[in-house]
Amino acid sequence: MLAIVGAAVFDGTGAAAVPDATVLVEGERIAAVGPRAQVAVPEGAAVIDGAGQTVLPGLIDMHVHLRPSLFPLLLAWGVTTVKDVGNRLDRVLGWRAAERAGELQAPRIYCCGPLVDGSPPFWPDAAHELADPAQAPAVADMLADRGVDALKTYMMLTEDCMAPLVRRGRERGLTTSAHLGRVTARPAIELGLAGIEHTPQGFYAEVVPDELVMHADERRRRGLSRFWAGFMAGWAAVDPDQPKARAMIDLMVERGVYLNPTLHVVDRFALAGRVEPGAFEAEPEVRQCAPALRQGWPDQLAMFTGAWTPEDYAVAGRAMERVRAFTGALYRAGVRLHAATDTPVTYVVPGHSLHRELEQMVACGLTPAEVLAAATSVPAATLGADDLGRVAAGHRADLLIVAGDPTADITATRRITHVLKSGQPLDRAALFARAAVDPSDEGADLVRR
After folding, report:
1. pTM metric for this prediction
2. Residue 417: is it exposed, middle or buried by C-beta count within 10 angstroms (0-12/13-18/19+)?
3. Which CATH class for the 58-113+194-389+427-446 domain?
4. What would the pLDDT profile of 327-382 be if each residue is shown by its tens digit?
């Protein structure tokens, strides 16, 4: 038995934290939680003094692309559950099985398997190419039979292929989310899409003024860097209160579609022009990453921003203000948001980036408590994980303990004192040490997501 005594407890729902509480952990689960005066600590229990700290559920990142060097960093930063949204099928299913069997120290894994993409697929090594609508039901059946938790489509997929895939997935009990491109948000939602990945990419064609919209195929013609400069210029002209944007918000609410905003990753692009060269490389969190993980990041950043001018960076900063404003408008209208990062793309540090994403969501106008719910109980419900995302009796004891009060100051989530997964305290120093020197990083070619 383990007792956490004297801490405030944020239960994951968005309700006010309970001060001076006790949490009892027995085995893998929470045995009791409540005010200290009402929860007795059994004799012989190990005790964590929680004075001045807050207990909250382990964090959930709803958009990752796993590889082995991510596992220790995710855990060390309190991310105890992840949804992998694009990977080689055998590999990610193997990791999921090993983690569930207790043979792999990693976050709890939910997965989509490969990206279901059109022809040619944008990321061939992690995609299943689907160009014939008649084959879409078979693709959904194959993935369902292999036991994936959901489906994920990618930007080159066409509407005539997406429709039967989403339909057959739903028949097999699988929801589908999408990184949109050739298919834009409105038709995708009308086809039955359950979730949209990335605010900037997901809504671009639906909210940017028509004269500034570029087709997804323009990436290949213009080159990625100039495409993204134009992409950000389009977002800089967005007004969330204009009819075009409001119609999109209303449709999201009407159909109950969720959003994984992934704001931090695009904000890194905008920030790159406002810091000294090499500043990202010098960040302590970046230095915690294994060399094999971070070695591709400078080139990848250059792929997206290498041709940008100072004016492009200034426009990108304004664009991110519009992206955050639109994300906040979606939330206020009733759209379900999840914390999600797209790690390990472009200096999006595994684990640590989720804390930055939480800060981005606060900048969208959400309260810290609402943001914490978006990283705990809300995604747990979307995953169908009834025993995750809450600090409540009977739930799995995936817990994060931080100094201070993150319901008042979201940056307190970074001040981690303890991480527990399935009731077991984790050695954060050992996890960081493992992350820095891990020599085996199968899948380095998938860093560009």
Report:
1. 0.96
2. middle
3. alpha beta
4. 999 999 999 999 999 999 999 999 999 999 999 999 999 999 999 999 999 999 99
